[in-house]
Design brief:
binds magnesium ion; 8 helices; 6-stranded parallel beta sheet; alpha/beta; binds 3-methylbut-3-enyl trihydrogen diphosphate; Undecaprenyl pyrophosphate synthetase; 248 residues
Length: 248
Amino acid sequence: MTQSMRQDWAGQVDFDRLPRHIAIIMDGNGRWAKQRGLPRTAGHKVGSETFRKIATCCRDLGIEHLTVYAFSTENWKRSEDEVGAIMRLLKQYLLEAIESMERDNIRLRFLGDLSAIAPELRKLVERTNAISERMTGFQANICLNYGGRDEIVRAVRAFAADCAAGKKSAEELTEQDFACYLDSRGIPDPELIIRPSGEERISNFLLWQCAYSEFYFCDTLWPDFDEEALKQAIISYQRRDRRFGGVK
Ligand code: IPE
Ligand code: IPE
Ligand code: MG
């Protein structure tokens, strides 16, 4: 974020009331490509560049967590070609991250069932995990082979196994305890969830964590999403009256 951009934001955005955690459903890559007569994979490529830009902007703003939906448990339904292209872009991003995370004090976390991911990609994830352990700054959470229902089912299985081993008791389970079994353990719930591309649905994203999130939808396709679009989402968020079931 440049100095002039910060000046543009000042007056419109209250820097003292930014969300700690923003989550984004990065949608619309395919339509963006189709509009240009390009293959869907071209949309994913530009979309991955948008992710880099928005992550940098969030970091510069002092946002603590940015969670992005990169690949859902349902996205395996797409052609091998398209899935392969998305995985290659992820690999490319991880290779770059391994080079730059330390310098930028950035942490990466992966949410989702990584057991289904190619071993080569998983190795890169492990390398970024090892670097992240030593870092303290901005955290990007990447949802990869992620589904909210799948995450909850895996958490229930792990909890049941702990009960069977005598380590936990079902009667004493609280919401906080249960959250420790989710992929998102330790990450605060997102205050703001953004979905570009005109679709207004959750598509199996952060089902447990979104209980009190503010939702922001816009028509921009993800490859066209920019700092201005992010600013508009934050302005909208800051106008909302969050009551959490109480009375003001
Ligand atoms: C989002 O863009 C990226 C992924 C789901 C991986 P889409 O590929 O869903 O783009 P549209 O929705 O078809 O335009
Ligand atoms: C959600 O987008 C998943 C990601 C952005 C990774 P989809 O494009 O897969 O969702 P639907 O099919 O429109 O619900
Ligand atoms: Mg889509």
